[in-house]
Design brief:
Elements (H helix, E strand, L loop, with lengths): L1 H18 L5 E7 L7 H5 L2 E5 L8 E5 L10 E3 L4 E8 L6 E11 L2 E12 L1 E2 L6 E2 L4 E4 L11 E6 L18 E2 L1 H7 L9 E5 L14 E2 L3 E4 L15 E3 L17
Bound molecules: zinc ion (ZN).
């Protein structure tokens, strides 16, 4: 009798091992505080054109000058972290960067993703370490789909990645970006490093291309879509021009 229980337990243990994806861990700098992604560090010269809403789990940031005056303006990483996504996600998103941060809050090491969309240029690669205030890209229009603005999110749930429709737009998955930043401007942990899981979201196949630089052409290199790739890929450019056609920003509530 004892012997059969042993085998049942062993089988269960092995099945658990097989069923659980192994987290892939990378080292990154702990965030010692969060700044705004535009007009660093305090969003000077920018305003929140659209806030966090049930259908819009992020914030849209625009230059106070209005229109497309902020096209090409710098977008900064809000904190130290690791780039886990830097691609052209097409559709309503365009060029997207996701930076994964670890930070110490309430005495505990926690993780959060910052998400930057519709960018004209992407200036980082997946796997790259960034610091608070590092340039990650520039403000864009997603190929003329919107008036130039930064769509910005802060995600509690590291599984969202680019599959936003699979998750509820609520406070279990998201932070209100400005509220989170204001509450975490200065944190302990300066100079420290931590490990963080990087393969926490999946990419649907054949949906993503290497980042497009609207202002300087398409960054072309073959990247596989199997997992959030952190491979270093050589970047070369081919033709492409900056255009913005119509202002449909106001019509597209979802973004
Ligand atoms: Zn938006």
């Amino acid at each position: 009798m004892r012997k059969s229980w042993f085998w049942v337990l062993l089988l269960g243990f092995v099945a658990t091992l097989v069923a659980t994806p192994t987290p892939r861990m990378e080292r990154t700098r702990v965030a010692d505080g969060f700044d705004y992604p535009v007009g660093k560090p305090n969003a000077e010269g920018y305003y929140m054109a659209r806030g966090f809403l049930p259908y819009h789990p992020g914030e849209d940031w625009n230059s106070v000058e209005g229109g497309n005056k902020d096209l090409g303006a710098p977008v900064y990483s809000v904190a130290n972290g690791l780039v886990v996504f830097a691609r052209d996600a097409k559709r309503g998103w365009g060029n997207v960067v996701i930076v994964r941060h670890t930070y110490i809050s309430q005495g505990r090491l926690q993780s959060v993703d910052s998400f930057y969309a519709h960018m004209q240029r992407v200036t980082v690669r997946e796997g790259q370490q960034v610091l608070k205030g590092s340039l990650v890209g520039t403000i864009g229009t997603n190929r003329g789909m919107y008036t130039a603005h930064l769509h910005f999110e802060m995600r509690k749930n590291l599984a969202i990645g680019i599959n936003r429709s699979a998750f509820r737009n609520d406070m279990t998955n998201y932070f209100r970006p400005s509220v989170f930043i204001d509450a975490n401007r200065n944190l302990p942990g300066a100079g420290r490093q931590s490990m963080v899981a990087v393969n926490t979201f999946t990419l649907p196949n054949s949906m993503f291309d290497p980042p497009v630089d609207e202002s300087r052409g398409v960054v072309s290199s073959k990247m596989t879509n199997s997992k959030p790739s952190l491979r270093k890929t050589p970047q070369t450019t081919r033709g492409g021009a900056s255009t913005f056609r119509v202002n449909r920003f106001e019509d597209l509530g979802a973004f």
